[in-house]
Amino acid sequence: MDLLHELNSPQREAVTSTEGPLLVLAGAGTGKTRVLAYRIAYLVGPMGVSPHDVLAVTFTRKAAGEMRDRVRSLVGDVGHGMWIGTFHSICARILRYEARSLGFPPNFTIYDEHDQAALIKQVLKTEEKSETRGSPAGILSRISAVKSQLIRPEEFRARATGHRDTELARLYEAYEAGLRENNALDFDDLIVMPVRLLRANDQLLDRVSGRFRYILIDEYQDTNFAQYELIRLLSSGHGNVCAVGDDDQSIYQWRGADVANILNFEKDFPGTRVIRIEQSYRSTKTILAAAQAVIKNNRRRKDKELWTANPVGRKIGVNGVLSEEEEGAFVAATIAELVKDEGKTLSDVAVLYRTNAQSRAIEDALRRQGMPYILVGGTRFYERKEIKDIVAYLRVLVNPADSISLRRILNVPPRGIGDVTMSRLESHAVEQDISLLEAIEGSGRIGEIGPGIRRKLADFVSLIDGLKSAAASGSIGELISTVAEDTGYIAFLEDQGTPDAVARLENVRELAAGAYEYEERAEEPTLEAFLEEISLLMDIDMWDNTGERVSLMTLHNAKGLEFKAVFLAGVEEGLLPHHTALEDDAEVEEERRLFYVGLTRARERAFLSIATSRRGFHGFLTRSVSRFLHEIPPEHVEYLSDVYEAYGRGGADDGNYSGEEIVIQVGAWVKHPDWGIGRVKACEGYGRELRVTVDFGHNNVKKVLARYAGLEPVDEGEV
DNA sequence: TACATTGCGATCCGT
DNA sequence: TCGCAATGTA
Fold first, then answer.
1. Which stretches within A576-678 are classed as H helix?
2. What's this model's pTM, rounded to 2 decimal places?
3. CA-to-C1' span, A419 to C6 (A)
């Protein structure tokens, strides 16, 4: 069959070794997505496997869609009935599918991080105020770490030793109870629940694992323990698991991904066959060699030698600039050159960065040049306030137990129900052991609530009842319009009349349009499934590269993509590697992998830019060149400016520059070797031009160039 | 008691 | 820059 002729020999082996566990170690650009698609095609084509027997897990919904399309183009439209999706969407599907037989409510709500934060804040309020240290987000991430290790609250409490863990165990327990009360699942639950159910119920395990006779997982290096366990359970009967991954591209350990999954695969799945694919088809020799040289500095990795038959190509352009503005200008000007001189189109180009905040300066520069771009990420559509408000109404209609959503909308738009009423309702609900909605429905019996407010609450109840009947009939798009209209949300926004409100109105309309689009596309559209879909939607899922636009995204979002030309912006100590990672070797290694992922997105051209000064929160951050740049052999690099030499390599012109990041901001304390300790009164300009006015006391006020003055930051304690 | 305003603090990456 | 918490005002 000519399906196999288009593959190299290890690829072909990976495609045709259909039985038993298989680990494919495929480096950047070696065609691992291709292998997966061909493998599925091989199974459902020549092998005659029913598409229903195949389960393919990808990292994004977008990748799942592309996989499906590729399979379709190889073997025709047999893809129907094939389960291709992300871990989270597949698990949500399994949960709804099996819910009834397990006595589990299928109308659960999926809580995103905002909902989780709202819930944990409630927990913190009710729990006694024993020094609950840490932000809600911090607590949640610790809970998530424990939870994705499949450790239940009771177990965690039992083995908790320190005060800190005991405290966390209490919060974890209360948080879990809160989720159950609200009939809600968080992202971890989506994986953890099916695992628990499969472990506890042999019949279920037989049924589900018997269904998927061939399992494929993409980006295996980014799976966490719960996901590993899920795969282990699902494949326990037949062992037909094919995991594809690259430990050098593991960039989600901060989120609980465990690279041990890929490193221990052979041990965990006895009889594993390992296939390495080391020929890269993507990048030039130069880019590949540079990336390899950098990643070799990581200690914890499987050694591998990627090679390519591609041309040597151009050197990697490195440009030092003085500010974000200059960085943006450099990027825009260079893109214009690539278009003019090399015939690149804008969709061939991506600008990648470590943090979303970096996009603004790039966007400004591109806009100034009149260069169209598409931004992936930033504030997401479904996280906008107005969208979350409308969605909260929909959630309450589907899942009346969801008090987090209910709380959100009870007084939105404002209808005269304030904090005090809210707390009365809540304590009543707790006392009577009923849901918040039931408390509202029965508010006539709550003595503390006055007749005026009772009336308002009754109005709210009939509003919800009306919407419930609207939800029962008619389309989802229509329902959204009805919700927006009947709740007074539209009128509320119209009354404001600000440009901001106009934009919000537009977004609400777009939500309805999105729902209509969903209804056309889905085989069996339901409100539950629509809500699930938008909960699990990722920024990158909405990206399409068909237009004539430059793509802007974070390094994380760029995983799995490729472009002819790639810009890495902000290749600086403190940004890449990020300053929060500097303390810990393992985290620096993850930053290095991130750099590696970024560089290997490029097929022909790569550019790195370094801004030696960036605007911080209030002042300026002075930055030095990333260590990762120094790890690239000089013969692969071409310096496009001399700033790099002056600041990065040579240290400073005046010998005072320490190479460390210093923060200059108004009000900060600084130290000077001659003048002693002083306080910054003003800042102007940036980079080389950054001048600061420092008051050293005793009428000694100096206005100096920050960079060359030999100023050092001073701890609060020293002052 | 509800709602507007001000001020402050946090800011990495994202299912 | 933005969202949230504390504060002020009707």
1. 585-599, 627-630, 643
2. 0.85
3. 14
